[in-house]
User: Fold this.
Amino acid sequence: MSTSSTATTPAGLKRVVAAAMAGTVAEWYEFFLYGTASALVFGQLFFRQTDSPIDGIIAAFALYAVGFLARPMGGLVFGHYGDKFGRKRLLQLSLVVVGITTFLMGCLPGFATIGYAAPVLLVLLRLIQGFAFGGEWGGAILLVSEHCPDNRRGFWASWPQAGVPAGNLIATVALLGLSSGLSEEQFLAWGWRVAFWLSAIVVLIGYWIRSSVDDAPIFKEAQARQALIQSEQLGVVEVLRHHWRSVLVGIGARFAENILYYTVVTFSITYLKLVVHKDTSQILLLMFGAHLLHFFMIPLMGYLSDLIGRKPVYLTGAVLTAFWGFVGFPMMDTGNNWLIMAAITLGLAIESMTYAPYSALMAEMFPTHVRYTALSLCYQVAPIFAGSLAPLIAITLLNKYQSSTPIAFYLVGAAVISIIAVSLTRETRGKSLRTVDAEAATRVAAREQAEVTRAKLV
Assistant:
């Protein structure tokens, strides 16, 4: 396995990783807040109440899914300009926008005060937040992937992924402190808002850390080459024209991870509250322990993908995803806190096997000058059909069948899609990004020459 000649020094690489993680932590703090609030608060405060508490939760989860609709558009816009002007600038912009919208969510009056304007304003802020969030992951991953050695990309590129549980941990601590120190009425009235307002501090810290790094040399070289070509074509057009097979693989590969994650992290909160009858503080404490372990699992799985390959780690996780629902929910049903935490931790451990290698795998599939656009497209389109609907589908299945078994079969379907997608791709462990660029250029040139030849024959 080769080592990139432009790999950043160890000290510089750690600074880049910190910068990428800082923004990821901040944005996932805010995103987890929204998901948790959907399960615990929004159903009661922002929608007309009915005789069934599940109705409000279903409405809140439907609104939760709305934000995912804006993410692909945000990914394409941020990806296009990130490929054109640099990863760092667009990452800073996305961080600020997400922070502002999250703060404003904490200021919104509820249904009892302004009626249907409450969910409408929440939808609007959610769409803006989702648009900005769409530009975060691809840029953060590439900031690290394009700086690190080829033979350690799985490990280093997994650290921004670890920003997900880190952000969740901070959000859980904030919510746990507020829910424990306040009565149920106080938490519903104003306590949850404080956690949203605290996002301003998290964002400022992330922005300050992120301002200390620069784009990688390989990106600047690709940027200079594209300037010489003076192409006006949108990056997404080139991605869909020349790399559509890799895009389909990237979208399909996310189904197992995305659906499992939002089932374990978001839907489980509702399941534990409605079915197992755990109180909010207990649930958040259990989530805290699981997120803490998840933080360490992600870089471990990234490291394993450097040792044995992206595909073996990924496919093992996808296969195990198909079994988690048949094991995890019965463990929760016992009501035993240790078994509940073990079920959540097991789900996140399996998810980390499909999440950690994904960043390196995707970075090694697309050329530098369209990599931001391509990664954002794959990463943000998949959740529209996967994670965004997972809590809604799960609560609907639970409400209809009064059983977790249909939800377990839903996870089986997600696993099958990802197994097929990842099986169709080649192993990329240790591949140089310069080789990726050269191979892509050769394929595109051959395809264009073939098109010219066909046109002459016609």
Observations:
- DSSP finds 20 helices and no strands in the chain.
- The chain has one domain: 10-214+225-457.
- The CA atoms of residues 322 and 411 lie 6 Å apart.
- Confidence is low (pLDDT under 50) at residues 1-6.
